[in-house]
Design a protein that fits this description.
Elements (H helix, E strand, L loop, with lengths): L14 E3 L2 E4 L6 H17 L4 H16 L5 E7 L2 E10 L4 E9 L8 H15 L4 E7 L3 H9 L3 E10 L2 E10 L16
Parallel strand pairs: 5-6
Antiparallel strand pairs: 1-2, 2-3, 3-4, 4-5, 6-8, 7-8
Helix pairs in contact: 1-2
Amino acid sequence: MNDPAPGGRPHAPARDLGDIHLRTSLRPGDIGRVVQLHGLLYSRECGYDHTFEAYVASPLAQFARNDSVHERIWLAERGDRLVGCIAILAASPDVAQLRWFLVDPSERGAGLGRHLVDQAIAFSHAQGYHSIVLWTVSGLNAAAHLYRAAGFRKIAENPGHLWGRDVVEEQYELSPVPPSPHWARGGRPA
């Protein structure tokens, strides 16, 4: 299980979270499953149209072609079903970007989201990134709470019309990148 992923990208050993299996190597069909999960959930929960899937698919395809040891994706599966994901991409040599964070509604509230954020922060620290940025939208209150609890702070808001809806994009930053999230160091949720 410690063999490099296809294309030579090393990955961490798989971990089990109860019946949930976490892996960091892409297999055939994974890109489509990540895009589909995002498309279906954001359509149902936020009313986004099909252009949101294109927004997810384009950089995800580029990530799959990059083959960088400084970037990683985590896929959480229960059986054959994708139930969560998160990724760290290089925005610059010193700045990581957290992307594609999503937990299926059937798995929310059990700690999977927190565990995925833990993995992303620890990896970013190990890679020597000085900060992590992420973009989200207002109204995703549980995710925003998790980001703040991990030590992220909101640094920008940008209203606009995307994915068939009026949205307010929010940018969060974690700087400097700690070896573990704020909550693991005894911090209190924001």
